[in-house]
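chain below, 209 aa
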Amino acid sequence: MGWPMSSNVISPDLGGLEAAAARLRAGELVAFPTDTVYGVGAVCWDTHAVAKLYTAKLRSLDKAIPILLADGEDLDLVTGSLPDSALRLARHFWPGALTLVVPRGERVPHSVTSGGETVAVRIPDLALARELIRAAGAPLATTSANVSGRAPALTAGQVADQLGPRIAMILDGGICPGGVASTVVDVTGPVPRILRAGPITEDQLLAVL
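prediction:
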């Protein structure tokens, strides 16, 4: 039997968005919709909050956590120098269902990257998600809002069923429009490399590159 829909499920209206942002600023976990699937996030600079993400999801510590940004200029906060291919892809597909693996910026904790020197970043194509990130005042380390190994959540109810009381709040933004996790491309090498197939196809990527 799944978790009941409890009081930690909140509408973004009537102060719900700010309440969720306040929880994030306080070092707690909040689930929220994106253009692909529901994510559960923490302020990416907060190592204690990031540790809670691994615990809540039963996620292996050797799996890095992506970062969601609200705006393109925020990319400088989380990465070092970028290859031209990364900038071209970002300008063309963001906001959207493309995650780019880029060099880790010095400020990004190693707990986010599992000790690695790269970080996965994306700007979601959903206004509510970007508004939450802005209200939180920081990029959000965000992974899919499901127990590791189980199906991604597309509704707040599915998040509650899988994560329930393990997280502080679920921002109910309805059904995620995409329903499929983002395409992931590593742009840290001499040639961009697709690590995970998704909504943006290889042909679409090659047309830009």
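Confidence is low (pLDDT under 50) at residues 1-5. The CA atoms of residues 85 and 118 lie 16 Å apart.
thats it, cya
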